[in-house]
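[Meeting: bench + compute handoff]

Bench side (C.D.) handed over the final construct sequence. Compute side (W.E.) agreed to return the predicted structure before the next meeting so the bench team could plan truncations. Sequence as handed over:
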Amino acid sequence: MLETNGATMLKKMLAGVALAIGGAVFVAPTASAAPDDNPFGPKDSTSSFVSAFDPAAFSSNKSLIVSPFGTSMQIDCWSFHARGSCSQNGRVLTEIRIPAGSSEWDYRMLYVYNPF
């Protein structure tokens, strides 16, 4: 059975389109999600904390932490739309605002590790 010119032309066009799509897929870079791509966190924030039992806590403006690990274990914090939280060792830390002055906005944060 002989093929018509229209059928042959259609097969050639479909083959060309398939090759073009295959080439584009092969050449296109793969998507990767690096941890730094998320601007909201979690990020290592250990340097922003000081143990509440450390004498340096009273001369520092860093957030306080009460934890059996102190600042020796990484503390991760994240924030989105002014709502944030921190965690240590896979557990969310309880946040407590301690008034530090006469203004409502003048406070110091205390984070407490709850193992339960």
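W.E. noted at the follow-up: The longest strand covers residues 75-80. C.D. will use this when planning the next construct.
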